[in-house]
Structures are given as structure tokens and as C-alpha cells.
Amino acid sequence: RLYQIPFSMPDCLGESQTLHLVGDFSAPAEFFVTLGVFSFLYAMVALGLYLRFHSLYSQNKKLPFADFCVTLCFAFFWLVAAAAWGKGLSDVKAATRPSSLLAAMPVCHGTDVTCNAGTTPAMGLANISVVR
């Protein structure tokens, strides 16, 4: 599915012009957050199991192995989610690059009009969110 995200940009006459970014950039973030919620819930269940039923956990040899397998699966999916988050961020950066936005503005396509991109927005905190 494609979303059209409206945003306003001023044109040369000082009037506001509405442009639409086309694309769905929410899937990687939704996957990342969903995995985080499931990881938190599993950690709470495992903590309750460790604290309440410690004797059952130490006597049954299959339970620690099952816990290890589930934790290994969560670690793998966390790596996949971090990669998806990074890809989603790079897609957002590409869609909001000033040169891409200028190319989408009809007012900049005139022969007697000069548009410049200005400065590139700071994405430092977004980059840190992928690394962490």
C-alpha cells in the first residue's frame, strides 16, 4: 500500500504549496516495535518462570534448552529488525532529500526560475536510533 504524506512548501510568491511524498515507510518501524514488545513480554514471562518455578526450571532439562532456542530466535529477529529499521531510515532520507523535494515542486520546473536546495537536514539522532 502506498501512503501520500502531505507537506507544505512555500513557492516563490510566498504562497504555500502542498506536495505529497509517495511511499509506505511504516513497515520497518512497526516490525521493530512489535518485536520489542514481544521481547519485553517474553522477558517478563521468563523472569516469572525463573523466580516462581526455579525448582521446575532446574530439574527439567528441556525447559532451559527451549528458553535458549526462543532467545536465539529473538536475537536473530532483532538483527533482522535492526536491518529493516536502517533500510526504512535510508528510504525516508531519500524521499526527504532537498534535491528530491525540489524536483517534485512544479514551480521549480520553469525556465526563468532558480531553486536551490539549501542545507541538508540533520539526521544524526535518526542514525543513532539504528545503531542503538
Give structural notes:
The protein has 132 residues and is mostly helical. The chain has one domain. It is built from 5 helices and 2 strands. Strands 1-2 form a two-stranded antiparallel sheet. Helix 1 (27-52) packs antiparallel against helix 3 and helix 3 runs antiparallel to helix 5. The model has no long low-confidence stretch (mean pLDDT 80). This is SYPL2 protein.
Topology:
Blueprint: E1 4-10, E2 16-22, H1 27-52, H2 54-59, H3 62-95, H4 98-104, H5 124-131
Antiparallel strand pairs: 1-2
Helix pairs in contact: 1-3, 3-5
| Binned strand content | 5-15%
Gyration radius, in Å: 24 Å
Apparent shape: rod-shaped
Low-confidence stretches: none
N-C termini distance: 29 Å
Domain module count: 1
Number of helices: 5
Q: What share of residues is helical? A: 55-70%
How are the strands of the biggest sheet laid out side by side?
Answer: 1-2
Run of helices and strands:
EEHHHHH
Describe the biggest sheet? 2 strands, antiparallel
Number of distinct beta strands: 2
Structural class: mainly alpha
The overall pLDDT average reads 80
Tags for this entry?
single chain, 132 residues, mainly alpha, two-stranded antiparallel sheet, Marvel, transmembrane helix, membrane, transmembrane, Synaptophysin/porin
